[in-house]
Write a structure and sequence with these properties.
By secondary structure, the protein is mainly beta. It has helices at about 5-15, 20-25, and strands spanning about 30-45, 50-65, 70-90, 110-125, 125-135, 140, 140-145, 155-160, 165-180, 185, 200-210, 210-220, 225-235, 240-255, 280-290, 295-305, 350-360, 370-380, 390-405, 415-425, 435-445. This is Outer membrane porin, OprD family.
């Protein structure tokens, strides 16, 4: 566990000990959860890496209530353990990226890895501050990744306020991150070799009407980029069986500090105008979802500007300088096109996507759901600033989920997912590949 977070949690607990029984303990919750994952990835290129691996993990959470008084104080503690059951990457290589487990110096998976995190919570009226190293933001400018066994976490502070009716304000600063398959903290970067000193963000979610949400956020990753986001979500209830949802998203990103001049802070993700790694991007998407009874169909379009790919937060393998992958990789982006293998954010990429969902509760099978997603990206500018060609890529994902609705194991969930990805790009870190995942999830409330 991070020593500073531990000291903060213990000092808070000690200072407010007399008030524990008045909310801190009485309103607390604790749970233990398990996730098992079978992961299979077949990279179909000549030098592709195959991965077939089974892992299981445990997560223990304690979330206190708040102490009494003008300022309530609380504490969150999270413990994580991952265990490798079988398999790994082939061929073994210390430099090969393993997205499931950390690697040993010879490129084989470690037997197990673990970490502990904690957040102190302070609340006045409807304003809450969280500070610690177990933060998991879910914002348009930063989405913590939880797509493998253990979740990605961040260190820093986040403030959320709902004191103004129909408006939620969010602000914060983060300075470290830990990957979904790592026990080592690293800097926060955006495709470069060095981590930034700070990622700052602020924004608001405003609901001027019950069925309308307007969003604005601004984020700054020191020495990488500044980014503005504007969003609109509107839900039209046609009748009791039909609805139409409109979701519009716009990102504008520009260079900050050392980006574009210092090689350690260059953004290298495909084509970049001028070849200096200087960030200059606009990306927008429009999605429309029509729901009828148990059916749901989403159709949308997304466009990334020609000058460079859309930047987003990573804490990649090069940031910590250990010379091998220890699972720091893995990132999520607030886009419909961020799916199993690819996120379709390359320079010039012009994507069309569709998502079909069906809820089998309409057939008397509650808890069973199916989904198919297809994305086609075209007009991609190639690798390097001198490439003039245009390329395309596509991905098709299939998903089947089931959650037990009753019995002693109520809440036990299984998820089977399959993805096929193909790209025309002549050189790419993302090769043609087929991927299968099978999850088993269960959470038990201790109290």
């Amino acid at each position: 566990m991070n020593k500073r977070a531990m000291a903060l949690g213990l000092s808070v607990a000690a200072f407010y000990q007399p008030a524990w029984s008045a909310g801190f303990i009485d309103d607390s919750k604790a749970s233990i959860g398990s996730r098992s994952l079978y992961f299979e990835s077949d990279q179909r290129g000549k030098n592709g890496v195959d991965q077939r691996q089974s892992v299981t993990g445990l997560r223990v959470d304690f979330n206190s209530g708040y102490t009494e008084g003008f300022m309530g104080v609380g504490l969150d503690v999270m413990g994580l353990l991952g265990v490798n059951l079988d398999g790994g990457i082939s061929p073994h290589s210390p430099a090969t990226s393993n997205t499931i487990t950390p690697l040993k110096t010879n490129g084989t998976p470690v037997d197990n890895w673990s970490r502990v995190g904690a957040n102190a919570r302070y609340k006045v009226a409807k304003t809450e501050l969280k500070a610690g190293n177990a933060l998991a933001p879910n914002l348009p400018v930063l989405v913590a990744n939880d797509a493998r066994l253990l979740p990605q976490s961040f260190q820093g502070a986040m403030l959320t306020s709902q004191d103004l009716d129909n408006v939620t304000f969010t602000a914060g600063q983060l300075n470290r991150a830990i990957g979904r398959a790592s026990s080592n903290w690293g800097g926060i970067a955006a495709g470069g070799r060095k981590g930034s000193d700070a990622f700052r963000f602020a924004g608001a979610d405003w609901k001027p009407a019950k069925n309308l949400l307007l969003q604005y956020y601004y984020a700054q990753l020191d020495d990488y980029y500044g980014q503005s986001f504007v969003g609109l979500v509107h839900d039209l209830q046609i009748d009791s069986q039909q609805s139409l949802k409109t979701d519009l998203r716009y990102f504008n990103s520009h260079s900050d500090g050392k980006n574009g001049s210092d090689p350690d802070y260059q953004y290298k993700s495909g084509y970049n105008a001028g070849g200096t790694g200087k960030i200059d991007n606009t990306s927008w998407s429009a999605a429309f979802t029509y729901a009828l009874n148990a059916h749901s169909l989403t159709l949308g379009h997304q466009r990334v500007s020609d000058s460079g790919g859309m930047p987003y937060i990573t804490n990649g393998n090069l940031v910590n300088g250990r010379g091998r992958s220890e699972g720091e990789g893995g990132a999520s982006v607030y886009l419909y096109t961020d799916i199993m293998i690819n996120n379709f954010t390359r320079a010039g990429e012009n994507s069309t996507f569709g998502i079909y969902r069906y809820d089998f509760a309409g057939m008397g099978l509650p808890g069973l759901r199916a989904q198919w997603t297809y994305v086609k990206g075209q007009d991609i500018r190639g690798i390097g600033n001198t490439t003039t060609g245009r390329y395309s890529e596509w991905e098709s994902d299939y998903r089947l989920d089931y959650t037990l609705q009753s019995g002693s194991l109520k809440g036990l969930g299984v998820s089977l997912r399959r993805a096929n990805f193909r790209t025309e790009l002549p050189t790419s870190t993302l090769q043609n590949q087929d991927q299968t995942r099978f999850y088993i999830n269960y959470t038990y409330a201790l109290w």
